[in-house]
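User: Run a structure prediction on this.
Assistant: Running it now.
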Amino acid sequence: MSGRATLHDDTVMSAEMLQKFFTCERCAENGKACGYQKGTGPCVECGNARKKCDRGDGRRQAYFKNHNMRKVSDLKDNVEALRLSGERLGRILRKVFPRTRQLTRRMEKLQNDYIKLQNDYENLQNDYENLQKELGHMKTEGKDLKKKNKLCVNELQEAKEELADANERIREWELREGPIHINGGDN
């Protein structure tokens, strides 16, 4: 086996594979190790038979043909799997995109409703604060009116007392002087 082949192909193939690749067809049929690696001419078997030595090219080509066919087959399988998964993905997307659009529209509508409700809440909050201020003013006005009412009640009580005193004085006077006629009536 040549040193160049070993250095180049050792990481790709095992030593047994290299031995198979660099054994010509005639030596492989006889089950002998091929000796062409020792020189530049044909191997010993092919030289004795006065035949051309293929130096293992046929075996290498057959291996790589099979190897390439396996790769092509795997590639076809992968392409078919990708095609099927693409079709499946297409079916899913045909279902998902309209639903996504529908959900997007619904989300936009809900967002608009939320904004409206938030504005309504702020307006109600402002109205509540204004009503609280008015209630405070009304309470102070109510307190003022209660104070005025107390004053009025006191004044009314005083007026009633004065009226009662006046009526008492009038009765006393009528008892002493006689009845009083108003507007030029008879005395």
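The CA atoms of residues 7 and 94 lie 54 Å apart.
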